[in-house]
Hints:
Elements: H1 9-19, H2 33-47, H3 51-60, H4 72-87, H5 94-133, H6 138-165, H7 176-181
Helix pairs in contact: 1-2, 1-6, 2-3, 2-4, 4-5, 4-6, 5-6
Amino acid sequence: MAQEVKLSKRDRISIWWRSTFIQGSWNYERMQNGGWAFSMIPAIKRLYQTKEDRAAALQRHLEFFNTHPYVASPIIGVTLALEEERANGAPVDNKAIQGVKVGMMGPLAGIGDPIFWFTVRPILGALAASLAMTGNILGPIIFFLAWNAIRMGFLWYTQELGYKAGEKITDDLSGGLLQDIT
């Protein structure tokens, strides 16, 4: 039997960094699919050895995808786990991978805006604005550093959470772990 292929932490860090650009090629037909596929490239390179397998995996990830850009991370994590299982011979087909993505992107999209745009950002903005209004240069600096620390930390933590949950999250998409996340 061939040696089991696993994504390294370095691969997952590369995917995490690339996921910050998920809206970089947003389009009306398939929304964030280009950014999603761009994020998945390090995993595809690690998991699949032949040009045909890599092309099929990339094609699989060029399907429609749209959710809040920050809550895409747990979906990326679960998808990485499924791709890893598939590369190691598990019976995970294209429909299963796409079904997980579609099944998670809707429920998670609804929590991204209230948490980030309507709660975290206004609180940090108010703090920074109050400092800036007194002439303190730390206002915008604190906003920039705190916002990006929260955002990037959330992206990493939830990607790893999804990756570790893997197929368990797909056992019951209407409840269980997915319901706890949402």
